[in-house]
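Regression test case RT-17, inverse folding.

Input:
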């Protein structure tokens, strides 16, 4: 039975997976307009630009010297020079690879941020759909209560109903009022939350919010996290190489022109700058950062797999429970049956209210199961698509 239901859900998911949900444009617009993602993108580009700036040799250095003779029979002398310092070619190549690795890592991290932001939006939409479904149920119940309340009032006026029946109906209507008010408050709060996420509320029509979008039951996709983890390791390794090669000596070549005793001299100057003593510690720090990135990636992978396994088990269990409830409480036809039974005199007011309460509890349990399953399926598809 378990495998049969799971197979049906997977089949339904495969059929629906290629279709775009009605919420896709709103989600995409909200993610595109997210200032946090835009700031992260600008910050990442600035970091890459900083590495690329370091990969360009410093400007040439020009020096001039003029010496005055203390003896009148000896001429003054002067000299001028132009020097250019540069690193060995391997250093520039390492920095170029580090910049490329950082750029690729920023792109992977940005995509992950988009998927995470889309998940927040989708979860809020699922909450909103659940609120509307509960609102629709309570409004349909309210329609029945109003009709029975009117009949009870007339019966009481004609002496065919007791004061207890009348008070019971009034309390039932009042309770329904409070429930409707609470649900409408939830809807207003969720609308405000979505608006703060840059979702255009006008794009969310009542028809869209009456049912959950089709979502397949699928294995969670780790590839976006994998790309981020691998790019972090690559960037850390590249930075380690940069730190190591930066310990190499730098060289300076220069042109010299001197004037002394009425004679002009031309020549070349060569100098070597030895690495600082702290370079070895910097290299070691970069190597340790690369090792830490590897451990972080493994920890993220294990946590993601554990969460995904738990979500898959939850989705399967919810599917079984929904199947058990579906035949009895998947629609509101029972309300019509209760109304007919009351009209035929087969139910008293108290019996009617008892039945209404039993049905409402069962129906809300069914809606809760579908809501929980929608949350679970949304989280399972977290890194598959920005859409549901």
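Golden output:
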């Amino acid at each position: 039975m378990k495998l049969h239901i799971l197979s049906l859900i997977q089949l339904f998911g495969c059929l629906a997976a290629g279709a775009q949900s009605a919420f896709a444009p709103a989600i995409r617009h909200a993610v595109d307009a997210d200032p946090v993602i835009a700031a992260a993108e600008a910050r990442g580009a600035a970091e890459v630009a900083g590495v690329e700036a370091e990969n360009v040799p410093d400007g040439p250095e020009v020096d001039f010297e003029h010496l005055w003779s203390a003896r009148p029979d000896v001429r003054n002398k002067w000299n001028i020079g132009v020097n250019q310092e540069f690193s060995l070619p391997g250093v520039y190549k390492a920095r170029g690879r580090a910049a490329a690795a950082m750029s690729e890592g920023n792109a992977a991290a940005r995509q992950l941020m988009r998927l995470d932001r889309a998940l927040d939006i989708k979860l809020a939409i699922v909450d909103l759909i659940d609120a509307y479904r509960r609102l629709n149920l309570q409004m349909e119940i309210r329609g029945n209560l109003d009709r029975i309340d009117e009949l009870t009032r007339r019966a009481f006026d004609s002496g065919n109903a007791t004061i207890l029946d009348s008070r019971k109906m009034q309390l039932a209507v009042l309770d329904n009022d409070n429930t409707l008010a609470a649900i409408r408050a939830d809807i207003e709060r969720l609308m405000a939350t979505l608006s703060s996420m840059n979702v255009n509320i006008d794009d969310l029509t009542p028809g869209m919010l009456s049912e959950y979008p089709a979502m397949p039951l699928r294995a969670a996709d780790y590839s976006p996290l994998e790309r981020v983890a691998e790019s972090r390791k690559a960037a850390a390794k590249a930075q380690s190489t940069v730190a190591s090669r930066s310990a190499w000596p730098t060289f300076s070549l220069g042109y010299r022109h001197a004037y002394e005793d009425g004679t002009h001299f031309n020549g070349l100057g060569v100098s070597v700058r030895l690495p600082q003593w702290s370079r070895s510690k910097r290299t070691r720090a970069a190597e340790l950062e690369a090792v830490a990135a590897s451990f972080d990636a493994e920890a993220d992978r294990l946590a993601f797999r554990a969460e995904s396994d738990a979500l898959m088990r939850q989705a399967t269990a919810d599917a079984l429970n929904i199947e058990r409830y579906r035949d009895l409480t998947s629609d509101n036809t029972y309300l019509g049956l209760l109304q007919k039974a009351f009209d035929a005199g087969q139910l008293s007011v108290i019996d009617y209210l008892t039945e209404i309460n039993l049905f409402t509890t069962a129906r809300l349990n069914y809606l809760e199961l579908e809501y929980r399953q929608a949350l679970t399926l949304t989280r399972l598809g977290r890194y598959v698509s920005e859409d549901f």
